[in-house]
Amino acid sequence: MAMGIGEILSQLGSIAASLMFVYAMYEQFCPSDLRKFVENYKHKFTDLMSPYIQITFNESSGERLKQSETYTIIQTYLGANSSKRAKRLEAEVVEDSQSPLVLSMDDNEEIEDEFNGVKVWWSANSKAPRRKASSGRSFDVVRCFTLTFHKRHRDLITSSYIQHVLEQGKAIIFKNRRLKLYTNNGGCWWMSGWSHTNFAHPARFETLAMEPEKKEEIINDLVKFKKGKEYYAKVGKAWKRGYLLYGPPGTGKSTMISAIANFMNYDVYDLELTTVKDNNELKTLLIETSSKSVIVIEDIDCSLELTGQRKKKKEKDHTDKNENKEKTDKKSEEEDEDDDNDDEEEEEKRKSNVTLSGLLNSIDGIWSSCGGERIIIFTTNFVDKLDPALIRRGRMDKHIEMSYCRYQAFKVLAKNYLDVESHGDLFPIIEKLLGETNMSPADVAENLMPKSTTEDAESCLKNLIQYLEIAKEKEEEEAKKNGEKAQLVAGKDKQELAQNYRMNRWRRQVKNMRNFFGSC
Ligand SMILES: Nc1ncnc2c1ncn2[C@@H]1O[C@H](COP(=O)(O)OP(=O)(O)OP(=O)(O)O)[C@@H](O)[C@H]1O
Ligand SMILES: [Mg+2]
């Protein structure tokens, strides 16, 4: 007898209700071993039927259930893609990032991605942890990302796509991170090691005043270095570059370092040699630096001579104190002596025993032991004072002279400080004066800065002209004085020479006369 539709539906309803009841009973009372067995077969059955493969990346891994780096990288990659496509996003504020608000896919959200024409799907899920952490701390759920793709693309996805996701994710993290400024001078001489703060110097190559060709050359050099991983590996050289910046004070050496760090997106390690106890500590400090960083030693000429300077200073202090001692009574003399001993002890502790050869070995050591993507920069006001071994090519690959401000550099400063790119009357006068005077960009910049809110660009330019004219006059006077001095010295030398000549002639005559009378 044929069944009516109503009857069929009611039969199906009761079957479904029975199945649901059985499943609820199974969930409630089924022993865990049996449940595992059933789950296993359930998965096997679905795997057999489905042409898709799934890979899961858990948020936490290992004994301590610590955050997996891979998960963070994937989260960043998906965050960059999903924020445009996913409808439900999770927001997080990350302190050490340039864009602190980080968006990522929320639970059970799914997005599609494409790689070499192949479609894949990512979903964010949560699942119960397999085991508790050894510490006893348990996580309610473990979050994970699931990557789904067709099994015919297995090789492409596992060999190339995942690699692509990890590289892209890492690049985004690197780009968004806040740069750090590390210093080994923690303010106390007994502290060693690096301490850091956020690096936020606004200097950029666009704001750096120097000849455009020179700037271009440096930028090209940096770009070549950044892209040179394979090249350096091919020629068997550590991936590093050394720059020596030299020039008078205020010509932009420190500013250039900040511009390089910002351009390369590298952290800065500002190494204060005078607070490094000895060569061993120096080596440790250098090895502790990370890759993608700029290591800076400012005023290298002063740093290495410091021990000598300190000795001289100590001797001077000692002589001063001796003189004072004569004037004071005996009691204060004893007190002075005690203080002296304490000072000397402290001085001895503070003294840096870093030597030139130690520095050279440490620099070479760091390249050989951890050669990845580092730039080392020395600055000096007196390049001639430096030992050639320190600045030979291979250690300091590029020597960059930071020179006095000329017209091209001035134009950059005028644009930065006054937003002015030309001035028919005043620019030519400034061009001429800058060609005749040696003025540092720091001085030019100072004169270009408006002194009040009402001061306009023209009056700033006029101030600069006035300042340049005064500086020029001073330079000429100085040159004149030096010339006169030189003439005076030359004149004195001439007189001395003539006198010596006369004396010698007279001595010869006396000698001849003695010989003559002696022979008679
Ligand atoms: N070439 C430049 N471009 C832009 N600004 C500059 C330049 N040179 C100097 N300045 C300005 O002058 C200031 C001092 O410059 P900076 O500290 O870079 O000079 P320096 O060469 O390192 O001097 P020192 O030899 O005394 O250490 C900077 O804060 C910057 O504003
Ligand atoms: Mg400087």
Which parts are unreliable, with pLDDT below 50 for 5 consecutive residues or more? 306-321
Bound molecules: adenosine-5'-triphosphate, magnesium ion
Report the span from N to C terminus: 174 Å
The total of helices stands at 16
Average pLDDT level: 80
Q: Round the Cα radius of gyration to an integer and report it.
A: 38 Å
- What is the CATH topology of the largest domain? Rossmann fold
Sheet with most strands: 7 strands, mixed
> Can you tell me the CATH superfamily of the largest domain?
P-loop containing nucleotide triphosphate hydrolases
Shape-level CATH architecture of the largest domain: 3-Layer(aba) Sandwich
What's the number of domains? 3
Q: Decide which structural class fits the backbone.
A: alpha/beta
CATH class of the largest domain: Alpha Beta
**Strand residues, percent:** 15-25%
Neighbour order of strands in the largest sheet: 10-9-12-13-14-11-15
Overall geometric form: elongated
- Counting DSSP E segments of at least 2 residues, the number of strands comes to 15
Tell me which oligomeric state these chains represent: single chain
Organism: Medicago truncatula
GO molecular function: ATP binding; ATP hydrolysis activity
Family: Belongs to the AAA ATPase family. BCS1 subfamily.
Cofactor: Mg(2+)
Summarize the structure.
The chain is α/β, with parallel strands linked by helices and 520 residues long. The chain has helices spanning 5-29, 32-49, 69-85, 154-176, 212-226, 229-235, 253-264, 279-287, 300-327, 330-350, 356-369, 388-391, 407-418, 426-436, 441-448, 457-519; strands at residues 52-58, 60-61, 66-67, 89-93, 101-105, 110-115, 118-127, 142-150, 180-183, 195-198, 240-246, 267-270, 293-297, 374-380, 398-401. It folds into three domains: 29-130 and 139-176, no CATH class; 180-308 and 351-401, Rossmann fold, CATH 3.40.50; 407-491, no CATH class.
